[in-house]
Amino acid sequence: MELQEFSTCFKILEDTIQKKEQLLNTLLELTKAQETVLTGEKFSMEEFTELMDKKEPHIQKIEKLDEGFEAVFKKMKPAVDDYKKEFEPRIKAMQQQIKTVLEKGAALCALEEKNKARLEICLRDRRQEIKSFKKSSQMVSSYYKNMAGSAGDKSLFMDKKK
User: Fold this and answer.
1) What is the DSSP string of 31-91?
2) In Å, how far from its chain's centre is CA 68?
3) C-alpha 142 chain-centroid distance
4) Which of these, 159, 140, 136, 157, lies nearest to 148 by C-alpha position?
5) What is the mean pLDDT of the chain?
6) 74, 64, 55: which is closest to 20 by C-alpha?
7) pTM of the model
8) Residues 101, 20: Cα–Cα separation, whole Å
């Protein structure tokens, strides 16, 4: 691999990492918004789902960037030792940027796990509310049926003494 081709490939890797970092920043913002929805007074499944839908294209872009990064890196890996000295400052900068991206990815995963646990709690609470509502509705319905059915039996409660 010649220097010019190596330089082009290296620039592609730098751009890819930069784009991935921007996408991770966006995902972190959206995930924090989900956290806000989950920790709010009234949980809104619609808002939560809307945020999930907004995250999906960013996740797909990150997957494509990762695939492209790997392909380009495989292509240029054998020539890294040949140009190591010429690219040393850029390599160190890229290593730092990769470290930053990995830290953001880890922070995102941790926040996603917290949100998952909170979502499970919210869904469990919602199910309990639904069960309670059904039970209350059945009790009210049963009460009114009993009251309507006992209207004809009023004489049983009257004192029959003379």
Assistant:
1) HHHHHHHHHSSS--HHHHHHHHHHHHHHHHHHHHHHHHHHHHHHHHGGGTTTTTTTTHHHH
2) 24
3) 43
4) 140
5) 87
6) 64
7) 0.76
8) 7
